[in-house]
Write a structure and sequence with these properties.
heterodimer, A: 4 helices, B: three-stranded antiparallel beta sheet, 30% helix
Chain lengths: 432, 185
Amino acid sequence: MAETPLAEARHTLARNPEKLTIGRARGTLVPAVKNAILSLLLILFAAPLAAEEAPVFLLERIDVRNLRRVSGDIIESETRLREGRTYTERELREARDRVSRLPFVLDAQFSLEKGSVRDAYVLVVNVVETLPFFYLLDLTLLHEQGGNVATPPDNSSAAGFRWFVGRRGVVHVGAFVRDDDRPFTDDFASLEAGYTHYDLFGTRAFASVSLKHSVGDTVSPELVVGVPLTARQTLTASYSTLEQRNVYPRSERIVSLRWSYNTANDPFFPTDGTVLTAAPVFGWIDDRHRRGIIVMPGPVYVLDSVAQHQNVAVLEGSAAHYWPLSDRNSLAFEADGGVGRADIDEFDRRFDENLAYGSAAVRFSRRLHDETSVGEAEQRLEFGVRAFFGDHDPLRYFEFERSRAVDDAYASVNWVRRDTWGTLRLGVGYEW
Amino acid sequence: MVKRALFALLLLLPAAFASAQQQPAFATNGNAVTIALPASVLQHAAVRKQLGSGLTTTFIVIARSRDRTAEGGARVEVRYDLWDEIYHVRRFEAGRRIDQQRIESLEKLEQWWRTPSRIISLNGQRIVLDVELRVLPFSGAEEEDARRWLSLPDRTTSLVDVLIGTTISAKPIVSFRWSAEVVRR
């Protein structure tokens, strides 16, 4: 007869007597001493002793509370903890950080209660949810040297509704504006509807499918599947398409496989931790002539034909590290970019183009809100400098996007606010 | 009836006021300033709730001289074992002192809590201090920081960094601030 995970864990513990001290500090430290010899002994021996003291907790059950709309199963899944297994406080804290990073969770608090048998515990997760309506407005206005006003390429905005379906599903509907700084993909604004399923087949993996539509475009699907490798690492595969049938018809198909390592302590205002990503990205992009008469000198163009076809392969990566300077202030360094190659086929010529693009930023952030209040708006003030390197010129055949020069950089000051409704990030800056 | 209620209110008000106004006791011990934390911290509703969570509650004391020439601190960790119904406590203080005990009751915990902790060096005859106590969920610094702290030479200037390590970025449950002028005795 198959054992329950809890019974199995208890048998494992029974076979390993040193683990029978679950939930209790193990060992005792040498008492504090005053003379130098004993201080030296402390330095030499107290450290490993201290390391042995970390208590571990056998989780009999995970109980998610204070929920109104959010599914408890999704929260439990995102903890990546398993009932019947033992965890250290550090692992529990990391689980809380993961739950706090969910877009529909404003705050999460962990506590333990006695389980049904000795040394077993119920992990209680108290959640503060966001509202079903969500918005993100990230807008920085930059004053350029020529006197124009521009926006940086990393602005994005969204507004919509999110509701939970069944025990592990989330449906979202909204409007999205996404900018990216890749030379081979287009920025776009669209209406989007999607469904995300968490804890796929009980594996803690998730899958999300969404449909995007903007004026003049067809409906373009996007599929994302994320698989947790460890408590800190996730592998995410995505496939997205974009079909534009406006003045400059274009189709994009992008496939990527992204590895990420995340120890950030907050999804929106991280002040501590590291986020690393690496991803091979492949793209197949067609720019097409529009139906109609094209009057221009040069070769004869066949109407409604492919003007340019690109096969793109790049390796993208990003790194961000956050240092707490004090309880209010923190410093962040962020870098991202990609290197690769594009095979371009145009009419009567075929050529390759090397791609290298990226940016680096340093940002100082100061907390403005009282961090002991739960459920209140979080506010920060940010000062940052971001510089771009490499080639950010769009590769597309019909050029109409603004090119970003190799040596573009901007400095900005932003006010950021997050509450149960959404996130607002407004700022002004200067670009040179 | 009204008179009795008013009388009770009059009795309760000073007690409530005194409880809210409890201050830590500062003193000197050799070349160090010590702090005895008030029991009102442990009685704070949010702190008491966290103490009952079965997980470690970490108390970080950060002391800075008003002229910002000196800084120091101490760290206290308390974890209530739900099954054994005892408190596991650990105190790190300036001078690489560590005190670790198992305490059987809340009353004894409050006694131990009021034990003075060294928080900062005293070089002159007097020092004006700004002190902050941050109450954090979980053992924010954990064993890594404890190991690092124990293995480093005692450098008072970096004490705050060493003591609080990663915990500085943790979101506190509640924090307290006090100021005091301490004169060497």
